[in-house]
Amino acid sequence: MTSLNINGKAVDIQAEPDTPLLWVLRDELHMSGTKFGCGMALCGACTVHLDGQSSRACVTPVSAAAGKKITTIEAIGDSAVGKRVQMAWAEIDVPQCGYCQSGQIMAATALLKAIPKPTDKDIDQAMSGNICRCGTYPRIRAAIHKAAGKA
Ligand code: FES
Ligand code: FES
């Protein structure tokens, strides 16, 4: 058994230590907000925060997440920055199919916590690992600027 801290709560899980965190979130804990895309750290759909850093849950064994504060999309609105990002996403109507958007919001929130007023270049760099097959990139960029108070 491994003990994890997920969204501020201690959770005991049964999965083996080398099980990817994404599997634990979705299959054991039924937290389906974090998405499976590629399973190979290539798309960003599974992005969560580990101690505030964007991390790919599909390639993070639970043993590596133990002892860290895990934040998922279900609790991103609990922080002031995450709430601003969520509101900006809704106001700009960013999602198309929506599949990538949990990961996009997680990445955007980590960016704004690190760089409160990012430039377009900062945004492109920080978000380059989060793929959107619907091509919502211009709206993602606009929403990040809006959440930063620049638009
Ligand atoms: S599912 Fe983890 S990066 Fe694609
Ligand atoms: S909104 Fe469809 S993949 Fe990004």
From TrEMBL:
InterPro entries to which the protein is assigned, alphabetical: 2Fe-2S-bd, 2Fe-2S-bd_dom_sf, 2Fe-2S_ferredoxin-like_sf, 2Fe-2S_ferredoxin-type, 2Fe2S_fd_BS, Beta-grasp_dom_sf, Diverse_Oxidoreductases
Top-level taxon of the source organism: Bacteria
A Pfam family it matches: Fer2
Alphabetical UniProt keywords: 2Fe-2S, Iron, Iron-sulfur, Metal-binding, Oxidoreductase
Keyword presence, Mitochondrion: no
Residues of the 2Fe-2S ferredoxin-type domain: 1-76
Presence of keyword Membrane: no
PANTHER family registered for this protein in UniProt: BLR6218 PROTEIN, OXIDOREDUCTASE WITH IRON-SULFUR SUBUNIT
Protein name: (2Fe-2S)-binding protein
